Amino acid sequence: MTNYIGALDQGTTSTRFMVFDRSGTVISAAQREHRQIYPQPGWVEHDPQEIWLRSKEVIEEALRTKGLTAAALAAIGIANQRETTVVWERRSGRPLMNAIVWQDLRVSVDVARFSRSHGTDSFRAKTGLPLSPYFSGLKIRWILENVPGARRQAESGDVLFGNIDTFLAWHLTGGPDGGLHVTDVTNASRTQLMNLQTLAWDRELLDTFDIPERMLPEICSSSKIYGTIRQKDVEGVPLGGMLGDQQAALVGQTCFNPGEAKNTYGTGCFMLMNTGEKPVQSRHGLLTTVAYRFEDESPRYALEGSVAIAGALVQWLRDNLSIVQTSAGIEALARTVSDNGGVYFVPAFSGLYAPYWKDDARGIIAGLTRYANKGHLARAVLEASALQTRDVVEAMQKDSAVDLATLRVDGGMVTNELLMQFQADILDRPVIRPRIQETTALGAAYAAGLAVSFYKNKDDLRANWMADRTWTPQLASATRENIYRTWKKAVTRSFDWVESGGHDVTNQ
Predict the structure, then answer these.
(1) CB hemisphere CA count around 487 (13 angstroms)
(2) Most CB atoms within 10 A, among 26, 37, 217, 448?
């Protein structure tokens, strides 16, 4: 009996498969990491074949652990890291190269060139996005220009493009043997090739970036029955939902009304606010994006503040400096001091995203004195995520004219209670963690469940949401504003580190 919904949650550092019951409770889960590949400074890649292998492994493990079969699943949804770009052969499924990850900076030179000829914001009206290495369009162009034979294959229809959602959906539904080449509106809106009004690939943009439309997937709703899965362990289960991971978290947090917002603390930090049925163009450094589209309903839009480095900074402290042995250990280390000791860490490893959009910024540690110790550094690392979030909140309130009363939070870092308390303190508003914290996978499951009538409507989903913990502000106003003022000063010190041409100053 189909009592459950499955979700394949493919993230920047790992892949999970989760099984939920109708209440949104996790019944079974499996998770495996994949390699982070750094061919040269500023370049970040993943092996798409490894991601597909991990996807199959976690599906098999999650089902086997609880003795479940495909017959127990009403449908499966996909949530995925966005903007990460894969181009593969239609006949074999072989990628032409590793996936270019959303954090990758190799197209910075192209961004500078297009900015000079078109203007940084020339594509915002159509796509809601500034020119940036972040998005998929220029990554596709780079592959076509730099992989021998790629452009010829693309023009003949012999290679396909997809973000990770498309790559997984194609494999799940047959791969070279008739696999579906589809994406949803949320992922398509992150390519800088889709028109936000028409929800279709824009001919002018394709011509500007010189990308053949034949290689692009069909754009679909986020919740619909795309087809039937043909993969071992889940054969015959409908594929019913696809959402970019941050939009999936918005759905998982049931932010269905205009003005409702969530913030996800993962590898990066991403805040989305539902703005309703019309896109709101940002004037303060945010992105305009599609929030979701269920079946044939009108699409819902969102404002988004994207922060490149959040949990990744904790991993860096663990892996590169060995200051902590585990990511979870940073809270105990940070609690050995009462404040940051005047230390601020601006993690501009991949430049700065919202609201600054500074590709030439690089990470800095400011305010060091001989008084500072590793506890202060750990605390500065945690505070960086909360301070970047305040930057985004300030911009979002200006764009939306909505004063956020509370902030709903999710993601791996929300178990860190020191971080959550500081987030409430620096925002001066309550921070609420939901009972079900796996909101990204849950959002994909919700989308799939709606497609097959496992859930009747959005009210069914809202009924599942419950608060687990609320943090209220405890910091004095003068202290709060002094911390934030100093943070803003530190941010400006990270600007203009990379000279024109995309090379680090230290490498000249």
Answers:
(1) 22
(2) 448
Amino acid found at 86: V
Does residue 36 contact residue 99 with C-beta atoms inside 8 Å? Answer: no
Give the predicted TM-score (pTM) of the model. 0.87
C-alpha pair distances (Å), 125 with each of 140, 180, 279, 284, 357: 21, 31, 10, 14, 17
Question: Tell me: the pLDDT tens digits for 48-104?
Answer: 999 999 999 999 999 999 999 999 999 999 999 999 999 999 999 999 999 999 989
175, 52 contact by CB (below 8 A): no
Return the ∠ at Cα 133 (arms to 129 and 139), rounded to 5°: 105
Helical (H) or strand (E) element with 250: helix 245-252
Distances in whole angstroms, Cα of residue 499 to Cα of each of 148, 272, 348, 495, 502: 29, 32, 15, 10, 6
CA 154 remoteness from chain centre = 27
Q: Which residues contact 337 (CB under 8 A, 6 or more apart)?
A: 373, 375, 376, 379
- Token pair 């490893």 is found at 349
Q: Is 247 helix (H, G, I), strand (E, B) or coil?
A: helix
Place of tokens 């959303």: 102
Q: Is 60 left (phi over 0), alpha (psi -120 to 50) or beta?
A: alpha
Q: What are 163-184's pLDDT values in tens digits?
A: 999 999 999 999 999 999 999 9
Give the three-class secondary structure for 326: coil
Helix (H, G, I), strand (E, B) or coil at 308: coil
Q: Is 247:272 a contact under the CB 8 Å cutoff?
A: yes
Angle (CA) 436-220-102 rounded to 5° is 65
The tokens of 489 are what?
Answer: 């000063």
The number of residues making up the chain comes to 508
- Closest-CA residue to 37 (of 52, 28, 50, 21): 50
| DSSP string across 202-237 | -HHHHHHHT--GGGSPEEE-SEEEEEE--STTSTT-
Instruction: Measure the CA–CA gap between 383 and 323, rounded to whole angstroms.
Output: 17
Q: What is the spatial distance between Cα 1 and Cα 11, in angstroms, rounded to a whole number?
A: 30
Structure letter (DSSP) for residue 327: G
